[in-house]
Predict the 3D structure of the following.
Amino acid sequence: MNSILLIEDDVQLSEMTCAYLELCGLKVTAAPSANDCWSLLESNTFDLIILDLGLPDEDGLVLLRKIRAQNCDTPIIVSSGRASDEDKIAGLEFGANDYLAKPYKVKELMLRIKILLKSTQLSDSSINLVKLGVTSLNLVSHELVNSDGHEIALTAHEYAVLKFLVKNAQRTHSREAIIDATHLEEGPESSRAVDTIICRLRKKVEIDPKKPTVIKTVNGVGYKIVIG
């Protein structure tokens, strides 16, 4: 049975959503605030998180960024009354896998949950050797090797950043999200540190200039990795 964390301060909506999802065979735990959410995340593992952005004790986007940093593989659906394109883009940039504007129908929410859970299960069952241009990253041995099978040395920070980008491939991540997820030190130098690490990684995974760029820069946003 898949376990869902619903972070929602609207009691009526929370109760209705929990009841429907449980009828569909899911185990749902409700949290009405950011504080309650952290208490639950510290002692439980969830297969998917549904997050309302309009919480009483913390800005939803800030909370989303923090949750994504601590749960890099857990699918997150943002549920919000903020329905503008800018809000949706911000939610996706801060780490959401999907964005559902309120008011929504619980049947649509359930469909989106099914799609994300299926995608996650397929990802979890995939091989742990990821092709990056002419190199390959082994997520079990933590080794990056070239086409001849020779290891390319990675620092701890380089591996952490590369693993985060690989585990969240095809999505763009801000420097702040990378800092949070890889536990780089916060401070005025941290953003430049991300750029420096990305530069070093490019030299290691993009060793064939004839091959397409693996780590792409998205101007004004951050970085994403392209697998293949």
Remarks:
- Residues 144 and 154 are 7 Å apart (CA to CA).
- The first strand starts at residue 3 and ends at 7.
- The two ends are 33 Å apart (CA to CA).
